[in-house]
Amino acid sequence: MSNNRDSAAGAGCGALVLLAVAIWAFLWVVKIGMVLLGVAMIAAAVIGAIAVPVNLWVGVFRRKAARAELAELDTALVTLSNESAGRLRSSVNWWDDLQRNKGVGTCLEEAYFAEGSHPVDAGLRGILARANTMVETGDQLLHQTMGTEGMPSTREACIDGIEHCDDLALELDGLRRKVTTD
Q1: What is the Cα Rg of the chain in Å?
Q2: Secondary structure, 3-state, 25-52
Q3: 29-67: per-residue pLDDT in tens?
Q4: Which long-range contacts (CB under 8 A, 24 or more apart) does 155-162 make?
Q5: Which residue range forms the structural domain that includes residue 57?
Q6: What is the pLDDT of residues 60-116, one digit of tens each?
Q7: Transmembrane ranges (predicted)?
């Protein structure tokens, strides 16, 4: 019976030794993991200490490039605005010349010189009314574009003004084609 006791006691000691070795190995792995984590944190701190200022300076250089590109955009908008105003001015001047010359050389000549003997058809009257309204709108738009108080405050407003001038010039040119080809 003493043999059974000794073997059971020996088995318990062996299990305790194995448990101690397992705990020691686990703690050794945890220690290595903590050391590696510490090294990784130090490396991340060094990389962050270098990357943050570099990123800030890159932002400064990008801001300078963005300002240069915005200056180019502003120059392009001024050029487009001037070209658009020139097209509208040309269309408005054509209609002003037409009224000053009383429609000579166009189908409107009859409308100016017919003193009630030949009534002007409704289509021609509609063209004249639309053209007069657009010429007045164009004059107002050109006055706003030329005056410093009417300059758009934002790029979006400038683009909208360019679009409005071009649309009006296209409509006036379309009406001009209707009058000169008929």
Answers
A1: 43
A2: HHHHHHHHHHHHHHHHHHHHHHHHHHHH
A3: 999 999 999 999 999 999 999 999 999 998 888 998 899
A4: 155/73, 155/74, 155/77, 158/77, 158/81, 159/77, 161/81, 161/84, 162/77, 162/80, 162/81, 162/84
A5: 2-181
A6: 889 988 999 999 999 998 899 889 999 999 998 888 888 777 766 666 666 666 555
A7: 7-29, 35-58
Gap between the Cα atoms of 113 and 102, Å rounded:
8
Domain count, the chain: 1
Answering whether pTM is above 0.85, one says no
Structure tokens at 172: 């006036």
**Residue 120 scores a pLDDT above 70:** no
Please name the residues in contact with 12: beta carbons below 8 A apart, sequence gap of 6 or more. Answer: none
Around Cβ 27, how many Cβ atoms within 10 Å? 10
Q: Residue written as tokens 């639309």? A: 130
* C-beta separation of 145 from 165 below 8 A: yes
